[in-house]
Amino acid sequence: MISPRLKYVLAFVGTLVTLHLLLSIHPTYRDHTLPKALRPGSSSSSVTDETIVDIPEAAVPSPPTSEELRIAEEANSSRKKANAAFVVLARNSDLFEFLSSMRQVEDRFNHWARYDWVFLNDEPFDGQFKRYTSDLASGETKYGLIPKEIWEQPDWIDEDKAAKGREQMIKMKVIYGHSVPYRNMCRFNSGYFFRHELVLPYDYYWRVEPGIKLFCDLNYDPFLLMQEQEKVYGFTLSLLEYKETIPTLWEATKEFMKENPQYVVDGNAVDFISDDGGEDYNLCHFWSNFEIGDMRFWRSEAYIKYFEHLDKQGGFYYERWGDAPVHSLAAALFLPKEKIHWFDDIGYRHEPFQHCPQGKSNRDQKCWCDEKDSFDWHGYSCTRRWVAQFPDGTIRKPADGQRTAPWKRSDIPEQHPLINATAA
Ligand SMILES: Nc1nc2c(ncn2[C@@H]2O[C@H](COP(=O)(O)OP(=O)(O)OP(=O)(O)O)[C@@H](O)[C@H]2O)c(=O)[nH]1
Ligand SMILES: [Mg+2]
C-alpha cells in the first residue's frame, strides 16, 4: 500500500516528466535541455557544430515597413520612362499561350517598369481575354479592334492568282503556305499596327507573341536605351528567310530604291542583307516576333511609301511576304546601321530558336537558358554577319570554342530548318 505522501510525490514527478517530453518537441527548449549527444542529427547526420551558424538577431533583415514600401513605390513611379507600350496581336484562342509570355515579361521586367499593354485583334476580345490579361498587367491595358478594311485581303487582289500561289506553296510544304489569315497578319504587321488608333499615341513598342520565353532578368529599361542612344530598331535573333515565300520581294524593293533613291541612306546595313553590295538579297532578316522599335520610323514617309509600293505588287497574297523581311529590308536600307540594336543581353526563345546571353551577362542576369544553346552561331542565323558589320569591336565577337557559322552560302544546308515544321 502506497502512502498518500508518496502518491503525491510520484504524481508530481510524473507531471514533470510528461511536461518535459511535451516541451522537447519545441526546438529551442530541446536545444537547451538535451545533452548535445542526444540532439537529433548530432551523431549520425553530416551536420557538425562547424556547419551550424548562429545568426545574430541583428543580421536578419526585417521586412520593409509600409512607409518604406510607399517611398520606394513613389520613387519608381516618378522614374524616367519612355513613351512606350507592349503591342500584342492576338486571337481570343491565343489567351493561355499568351499569358505564359505575358507573365514572363512582367516577372523579368515590367513588374517594376510598368509599361502599358495594347492588344489588337481582328475580332472583339472576349471578357475572359480581358480579365486574365488585365489581372497580369502592371501598366494599363487597352483592347482594340482592327477594321475589316485593313485586315482582310483587299478586293483588288486577283483571288484566282492568289489561290494558285497558295496551292503552289502547299506543294512546296511552306509553313503557313495555305493560310489567308496568316497573310492578313503579315500585311497588318508590315503596314498597319503602328497606325492603329490605340497605338498611335506611343513612340516605342515591344512586340510580344504567344508562347515565347524570356530567360533573364532585365535590370534596365530597353525603351530608355532606345531613346537615349537614338536607336530605331532592336532585335534578338536573325536568320535566313525561305526563298519560296518571297520570290519577287527583292525585285520590288530594288524598283522602289531606283524610283526613290533619296530614302536610301549612306552608312546603312546593306551588307547585312546583301553579299554583293546590294545586287542580290541574301535572305537575312531580323526575326520580327521579337521587336523593340521606334514607330516613328514606320510612320515616316520613306517607310509608308515603301509599304505602299510593296502592297501594290500584291506579294503579301500572291506570294507570302512576311513582315520580318519587309521590316528588315527597310531598316537595313533606310537607316544608318548604328540605329539598329542587337539586344544581345535579352535571353529569348520563340520556337524553335533561342538567343541565350553568354558568360558574365548570363550569370549577372540570372538567365535560365543553356549558353551552348544559342542559335546565333548556327549556319542559318545571320547574327554573325550582323556582328561583322562592326569590325571596330563595338559588338561582341563569338567567344572561343563557340560554334561558328559557315561564311559561304554554299556551305549552308539546302533544307531550311523551319520547312516542314507546320506545313499544311
Ligand atoms: N487576331 C489575330 N491574330 C493573329 C492571327 N494570326 C496570327 N495572329 C497573331 O500574330 C502573331 C504572329 O502569328 P504566329 O502564328 O505566331 O506566326 P509565327 O510566329 O510566324 O508562327 P508560329 O509562332 O510558329 O505559329 C501572333 O501574336 C499571333 O497571335 C489572326 O488570324 N488573328
Ligand atoms: Mg509566333
Automatic annotation (TrEMBL):
<dbReference type="GO" id="GO:0006487">
    <property type="term" value="P:protein N-linked glycosylation"/>
</dbReference>
<protein>
    <submittedName>
        <fullName>Alpha-1,2-mannosyltransferase</fullName>
    </submittedName>
</protein>
<keyword id="KW-0328">Glycosyltransferase</keyword>
<dbReference type="GO" id="GO:0005794">
    <property type="term" value="C:Golgi apparatus"/>
</dbReference>
<dbReference type="GO" id="GO:0016020">
    <property type="term" value="C:membrane"/>
</dbReference>
<dbReference type="InterPro" id="IPR002685">
    <property type="entry name" value="Glyco_trans_15"/>
</dbReference>
<feature type="region of interest" description="Disordered">
    <location>
        <begin position="393"/>
        <end position="424"/>
    </location>
</feature>
<keyword id="KW-0808">Transferase</keyword>
<dbReference type="Pfam" id="PF01793">
    <property type="entry name" value="Glyco_transf_15"/>
</dbReference>
<dbReference type="InterPro" id="IPR029044">
    <property type="entry name" value="Nucleotide-diphossugar_trans"/>
</dbReference>
<dbReference type="GO" id="GO:0000032">
    <property type="term" value="P:cell wall mannoprotein biosynthetic process"/>
</dbReference>
<dbReference type="GO" id="GO:0000026">
    <property type="term" value="F:alpha-1,2-mannosyltransferase activity"/>
</dbReference>
<comment type="similarity">
    <text>Belongs to the glycosyltransferase 15 family.</text>
</comment>
